Amino acid sequence: xxxxxxxxxxxxxxxxxxxxxxxxxxxxxxxxxxxxxxxxxxxxxxxxxxxxxxxxxxxxxxxxxxxxxxxxxxxxxxxxxxxxxxxxxxxxxxxxxxxxxxxxxxxxxxxxxxxxxxxxxxxxxxxxxxxxxxxxxxxxxxxxxxxxxxxxxxxxxxxxxxxxxxxxxxxxxxxxxxxxxxxxxxxxxxxxxxxxxxxxxxxxxxxxxxxxxxxxxxxxxxxxxxxxxxxxxxxxxx
Length: 238
Hints:
The protein is an alpha/beta fold and 238 residues long. It has eleven helices and eight strands. Helix 5 links the parallel strand 4 (90-95) and strand 5 (118-123).
């Protein structure tokens, strides 16, 4: 299925550039937004709260996830509770573990039971999905972000794992699965085909949407024309 009008998966924009977020947010497919400290650092963000509040003003009430950046669970929880006050459409991203590989499940359960909307991130195993699902099951609407793209980077097909994750998450009906860190546009259709709830995309992937449904014979000719044009422009001689 390559008909954009029939897509059921929700597409969230992933980024930390204000101008880029405003531009990508104009696309009718974009139903929400995510960001993280790495993207913010690359974008040169220095005032976390100021930037976050500015973005809230331009996304029209659509959901957005802001991530904590502490490594100690007590400070992580303090940050989560603060971030959650910024808006009803704010979801707080918390990592599945800290850098010491200590699990965040107990903190996740406390926050969820207190009504904090969470996006538990950086999951890559089904065991992690099981534990996070259990921690979220008594809480409000939430997201579980499984980094399918990074799983694929290791040579493993993420589709079976994501399919199994959806089955596990039936125990937490208010939680939605995010196909995170996709590597190509085709991943949108992979996610849609298995019933994944959300997929995050960057501007470069979204830009390829204009190619969906393109005649492959025409695309082949355009590729040949590109090679010929660049060959002429280079001034090569043999």
